[in-house]
Amino acid sequence: MNAPKTSRYIEIQGVAQTFKTKKGPFQALRDINLTIGKGEFVALIGHSGCGKSTLLNLIAGLTAPSAGVLLCDNREVAGPGPERAVVFQNHSLLPWLTCWENVHLGVERVFGAANKSTGVAAESRAQLRQRTDAALALVGLTHAAQKRPGEISGGMKQRVGIARALAMEPKVLLMDEPFGALDALTRAKLQDELLEIVAKTQATVVMVTHDVDEAVLLSDKIVMMTNGPAATIGEVLPVHLPRPRNRVELAENPAYLHCRKAVIDFLYARQAHVEKAA
Ligand SMILES: Nc1ncnc2c1ncn2[C@@H]1O[C@H](COP(=O)(O)OP(=O)(O)OP(=O)(O)O)[C@@H](O)[C@H]1O
């Protein structure tokens, strides 16, 4: 069963992003308007360099927009916060710490000190350890807790990155091509795991991807971006496929094939990428 989803959780209103460069201002994004419901899974797709990461960074609060406003749960996004956790493609783990310690670092930061704004007290060391154990268990990595990143596979590293983000119990999970560097089989396994985790945690997810099948398999809606510079949202495609989703069953599902074709048509017919001359 699909969980009920409230219609306005993240609101992006008239957002533009212009970067200062040596050659003068560069407008990456213009006129971005998007509403994301609580518990929704949204994929951002578009050609390389169109501004997907720029938009994700704005939602994360890692950068501020040049124009417009972003709201999360009716509050303006004014910087990064533990309610919006980010998972990057390169997992960004600290190589000298074990998997457990990498996850625990974030847990201590978020729950190890009293939260003045909510009045919630700091948790005990045992509670913090339990959170870390639970996050690693959620991604199936209990057995690798004491290994260092250099001793585990790319897929396992990516799982640690996801565990680290999930351990903060974020309301919003922001993922920038989290499976981009993985082989097809590992990628499929992690997609399936992510579907299960999101069903359990009910997090709102925004994921940047280049992969059409990944976008259709995972999402409630696919946000398709036009080519840059000054990219914007070209079309938003709702994905009306029941959950839980099974990739094998979906392969011949007409609604799945329809969505897939709509995205391919947008990317390769209407937004055919024009390579700039060097
Ligand atoms: N800090 C910055 N300063 C100047 N230009 C930037 C900056 N960050 C991004 N850009 C430019 O903004 C545009 C959008 O970049 P962005 O990384 O968001 O694209 P993307 O769609 O995520 O690309 P890819 O799919 O290749 O990762 C690109 O032309 C990029 O060069």
Question: How would you describe what is shown here?
Answer:
With 278 residues, the protein is α/β, with parallel strands linked by helices. It is built from eight helices and ten strands. It has a six-stranded mixed β-sheet, with helices on both faces. Helix 2 (99-111) runs parallel beside helix 4 (154-167) and helix 3 packs across helix 4. Bound molecules: adenosine-5'-triphosphate (ATP). Adenosine-5'-triphosphate is lined by residues 19, 21, 26, 28, 46, 48-54, 228. Residues 10-252 form the ABC transporter domain. Keywords: ATP-binding, Cell membrane, Membrane, Nucleotide-binding, Transport. This is Nitrate/nitrite transport system ATP-binding protein.
Q: Percent helix among the residues?
A: 25-40%
Oligomer: single chain
Unreliable segments of 5+ consecutive residues: none
Class by helix and strand content? alpha/beta
Name the shape in a single word. Answer: globular
Strand order across the largest sheet: 6-7-8-3-9-10
SSE order, as H and E? EEEHEEEHHHEHEHEEHH
> What is the strand tally?
10
